[in-house]
Amino acid sequence: MEIGSGLITRAQYIYAGFALLFIHPLAFFLILKKTALLQRELKVCYFINQVQLAAHDVWGLLLYQLHPLLPYPVMHCSGFACGKGWIGAGVCMAIEASFTVHSMMLIIATLHFMTQRVLEQGSRLKLGQIGTYLFLLFLYLFLLLNVVGCALFARDSPDWERILRSLSNLTE
């Protein structure tokens, strides 16, 4: 387990460095400089989504580092945030769920703005600006219940030490 876990951790650090130094800056440049024809709302959604993805790379690849512990249906955190005991399991899962909710909400908002743009003016599906924002706000608040659930109900397994020992015995 140590060899595989070490390789995964090293690969996460390499990918995080590459993504944060090359991929995300390139995406920011393309969004800001090469999307003149995009509607303002879409450009803002794409930009915010890219900021969220960069922040998630910092969280997921550097601070959190979540690994599945197969064959068990559990995850193990080895990053600075939870591996060192700085943040509890519930808060770590809530942060991870928050990134998921925000990325999904940005995709939904982008698709909604694009759909509203192509609908005919008299369509019953076309919402006004207030209706659009109320719909997106309701959906966002509904999805945030997932974050609250993670914060309230995610816990460390009482047998986590035994599970880690049994996994290291399997690899020997």
General description of the model:
- A two-stranded antiparallel sheet has the order 1-2.
- By secondary structure, the chain is mostly helical.
- The model has no long low-confidence stretch (mean pLDDT 81).
- It has helices at residues 2-33, 40-64, 80-83, 89-118, 129-153, 160-171; strands at residues 66-68, 75-77.
- Strand 1 and strand 2 form a beta hairpin.
- Helix 2 (40-64) packs antiparallel against helix 4.
- It has 6 helices and 2 strands.
How far is the first residue's CA from the last residue's CA? 8 Å
* Topology order in helix (H) and strand (E) letters: HHEEHHHH
**Biggest sheet record:** 2 strands, antiparallel
The structure class reads: mainly alpha
Q: What is the 3D form?
A: flat
CA-based gyration radius: 20 Å
| Average pLDDT number | 81
Give the assembly state of these chains: single chain
Q: What's the helix count?
A: 6
How many β strands by DSSP?
Answer: 2
State the low-pLDDT regions, or none: none
Beta-strand residue fraction: under 5%
Spatial strand order of the main sheet: 1-2
> What share of the residues lie within helices?
over 70%
